[in-house]
Amino acid sequence: ELKVEQNPLFLSMQEGKNYTIYCNYSTTSDRLYWYRQDPGKSLESLFVLLSNGAVKQEGRLMASLDTKARLSTLHITAAVHDLSATYFCAVDRNTGNQFYFGTGTSLTVIP
Amino acid sequence: DAGVTQSPTHLIKTRGQQVTLRCSPKSGHDTVSWYQQALGQGPQFIFQYYEEEERQRGNFPDRFSGHQFPNYSSELNVNALLLGDSALYLCASSLMRAPYNEQFFGPGTRLTVL
B45 and A100 in contact by Cβ < 8 A? Predict the structure, then answer.
């Protein structure tokens, strides 16, 4: 069974600060996906990382993938309140089938 | 371009009842996956449908069944509901022959079992 772990599970940070969310997974995969979920809502796709060393940036969020370490990071720069949400990473086995989701990181940005 | 749609939005059932949830994939997509998301947890894969057949199944009992129609829409059926089936049920669509498996999620159906 493929395991995906995120840390931290909960993150409270002040506006303007930087922080990183980590996503570790237990088996070989070249593809990792980051999603955002607002309370009571569905999942919004943020990044698709398709190879070792891939880096994607959108606004204050930057995601990277190290397939050798089986690690992805989601870096938040100069956080703003609008970034408050739960962030999930997900991995597939390169088979086009199921996603294995992480435990989620609940982010609260405090003014 | 219509995204993934699901119905109903909310549903309340009692233990032992049966429920059917519906999903229409994003335009151009041919594959539908279903996930169960319990409160405070990440989504768990239930099964995936492609070409009207169940292609892969997660660790869910046979009480969970599904169907895909020729127009690619899909249904999730749950029989003999348990309290533990209360969750947000998410449908995701994708294109099987795409170079990577990006899945687009619908708004979900919130099922409450009393």
Answer: yes
> How many other C-beta atoms lie within 10 A of the C-beta of residue A111?
7
d(CA A54, CA A67): 9
Contact B102 A92 (CB under 8 A): no
Considering only CB atoms, B101 lies closest to which of A43, A92, A104, namely A92
Distances (CA, A) of A82 to A17, A60, A111, B30: 14, 11, 11, 34
Calculate what percentage of chain A has a pLDDT beyond 70. 97
What own/partner pairs with CB < 8 Å and gap ≥ 24 does A49-54 have?
A50/B100
Least confident of A52-61, A90-99, B8-17: A90-99
Interface test with A, best of B21, B44, B54, B101 (most A CBs within 10 A): B101
Q: Smallest Cα–Cα separation from A78: which of A45, A36, A109?
A: A109
